Structure formats: structure tokens, C-alpha cells
């Protein structure tokens, strides 16, 4: 039988990539498909949650049954939408690929091609939405982040993940190893689910729906514990 373990729970999930506008027709973007965020929304809805999915640019994905979809473009739009939805949510999951930077200037009209060399694109930092949501956290709200990491000679993917969990202050962090055809635009994901209390749950290689199940199991287990 289907476990309706998220009955009566409102979850806010971000998915997909942001597009940072340069002019009315151009943007800086990324390759996020949104599949992981959509899988999280689908599984949460199947488990009985009320789901609000805030989606940036994604592949052509069907909206999961019973999910409220809010479309956004840029990181600043995603930030506004997430703050609004999170104010009423019991669980917040940031699965979106938020651009770290955006162009400083948004041209009012299409940037023209001229015989002169083009102007360089000057960038400014976007806010860290996950860290902001942690600062604005409601009592008892569970906040989940994602991290796509590559390891190097001195520091492993897992160590980078542990440091990011502490830095961001979220309750749970999904760490995905990236590179070598892993994670982005892929059907499958693997990695670890880290908790603020130090739990490290390995997530076996599997579908994004399977990863979503691991995340919702952990969220449900947390909510069951006395805080
Ligand atoms: O720092 P990094 O980009 O690796 O962190 C990834 C996590 O932070 C993801 O959950 C992502 O959705 C979130 N994030 C954010 N705002 C940003 C950048 C990332 O909320 N500007």
C-alpha cells in the first residue's frame, strides 16, 4: 500500500535552472533539466503532501499530478517565489540550479551587433537563496539543500558536502558527485544524504525518483523525532 506519510504537510520545492537576462532576448543559463526537483514533487504528492513546485527553466516535463506549479525565470524571481511559498511551508527543498552570478546591467533593448568589439559582460553575485531561507526558517521547518560536487587530490566529494552543510545551515543536504556524465541532464543520480546531526546515508546509484524517496524518508523520520 502507498504510504501517505506526508499527509497534511506543505512542501515547497525549487527545480530547474535560472536564466539571468542580458537583454529582452538573451540570457545566461545552465544545463539543469529539473528532473530531480520534479521527481521530489511527484513522490511528495504521492505520499499525500500539498506540493508547491517553483520551476525555472526545465526540460519538457509533465507537471506531476496534484502539484501547484509556479514558473520563474531569473534567480531573483526564484528567490521571491521561494520566500513567499516557504512562509507557509513545513518543508523546503532547494533542488534548483541557481546561477551564482547575473549580469549587472539589463539592457532595455536587444544589444546590437556593430563593427566595434562587443562590451564585456559584467557580473554581480546572486543572493544565496538557501542560506536566506535558513535565516528566515519557521519553527520546526525542515530545509533540504542539494550540492553537486567534484572531489580533488586533497578533499573528497563527501568532505566538500559536509562543509557545505555546515556553511548553509540546512537540516539535510544531498551531495551528488558530478562530472564524468553524472547528475546533470542524466536520468540517474547517486551520492549521500547528510544530516546536520552527522548522519551520512549513502544513496545508491538509481533513478531520481528513488533518490527522492530517500529524501522524503529522511524528512519524515526527522519530523517524527522530538526536536
Ligand atoms: O553553493 P552551491 O551552489 O553549491 O549550493 C547548492 C545549493 O544551494 C542548492 O540547494 C541550490 O539550490 C542552493 N543555491 C541557492 N542560491 C544560490 C546558489 C545555490 O539557493 N545562489
Automatic annotation (TrEMBL):
Family (UniProt): In the C-terminal section; belongs to the PPC synthetase family.
Cofactor(s), by name: FMN; Mg(2+)
Binding site for CTP: 100, 110, 127-130, 146, 164, 168
Sequence segments annotated as region (Phosphopantothenate--cysteine ligase): 11-227
Protein name: Coenzyme A biosynthesis bifunctional protein CoaBC
Pathway, per record: Cofactor biosynthesis; coenzyme A biosynthesis; CoA from (R)-pantothenate: step 2/5; Cofactor biosynthesis; coenzyme A biosynthesis; CoA from (R)-pantothenate: step 3/5
Role: Catalyzes two steps in the biosynthesis of coenzyme A. In the first step cysteine is conjugated to 4'-phosphopantothenate to form 4-phosphopantothenoylcysteine, in the latter compound is decarboxylated to form 4'-phosphopantotheine. Catalyzes two sequential steps in the biosynthesis of coenzyme A. In the first step cysteine is conjugated to 4'-phosphopantothenate to form 4-phosphopantothenoylcysteine. In the second step the latter compound is decarboxylated to form 4'-phosphopantotheine.
Residues of the DNA/pantothenate metabolism flavoprotein C-terminal domain: 6-220
Cofactor binding summary note: Binds 1 FMN per subunit.
GO MF annotations in UniProt: ligase activity
EC number in record: 4.1.1.36, 6.3.2.5
Gene: coaBC
Catalytic activity reported: N-[(R)-4-phosphopantothenoyl]-L-cysteine + H(+) = (R)-4'-phosphopantetheine + CO2; (R)-4'-phosphopantothenate + L-cysteine + CTP = N-[(R)-4-phosphopantothenoyl]-L-cysteine + CMP + diphosphate + H(+)
Keywords, ordered alphabetically: Decarboxylase, Flavoprotein, FMN, Ligase, Lyase, Magnesium, Metal-binding, Multifunctional enzyme
Amino acid at each position: 500500500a502507498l504510504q501517505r506519510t506526508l499527509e497534511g504537510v506543505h512542501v515547497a520545492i525549487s527545480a530547474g535552472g535560472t536564466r539571468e537576462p542580458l537583454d529582452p532576448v538573451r540570457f545566461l543559463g545552465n544545463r539543469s533539466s529539473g528532473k530531480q526537483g520534479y521527481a521530489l514533487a511527484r513522490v511528495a504528492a504521492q505520499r499525500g503532501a500539498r506540493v508547491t513546485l517553483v520551476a525555472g527553466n526545465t526540460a519538457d516535463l509533465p507537471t506531476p499530478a496534484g502539484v501547484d506549479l509556479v514558473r520563474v525565470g531569473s534567480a531573483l524571481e526564484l528567490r521571491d517565489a521561494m520566500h513567499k511559498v516557504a512562509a507557509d511551508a513545513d518543508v523546503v527543498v532547494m533542488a534548483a540550479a541557481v546561477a551564482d552570478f547575473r549580469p549587472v546591467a539589463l539592457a532595455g533593448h536587444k544589444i546590437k551587433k556593430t563593427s566595434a568589439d562587443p562590451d564585456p559582460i559584467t557580473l554581480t553575485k546572486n543572493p544565496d537563496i538557501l542560506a536566506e531561507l535558513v535565516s528566515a526558517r519557521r519553527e520546526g521547518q525542515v530545509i533540504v539543500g542539494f550540492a553537486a560536487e567534484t572531489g580533488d587530490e586533497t578533499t573528497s566529494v563527501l568532505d566538500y558536502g559536509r562543509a557545505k552543510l555546515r556553511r548553509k545551515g540546512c537540516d539535510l543536504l544531498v551531495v551528488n558527485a558530478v562530472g564524468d556524465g553524472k547528475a546533470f541532464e542524466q536520468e540517474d543520480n547517486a551520492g549521500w544524504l547528510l544530516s546536520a546531526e552527522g548522519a551520512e546515508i549513502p544513496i545508491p546509484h538509481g533513478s531520481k525518483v528513488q533518490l527522492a524517496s530517500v529524501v522524503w524518508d529522511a524528512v519524515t523520520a526527522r519530523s517524527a523525532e522530538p526536536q
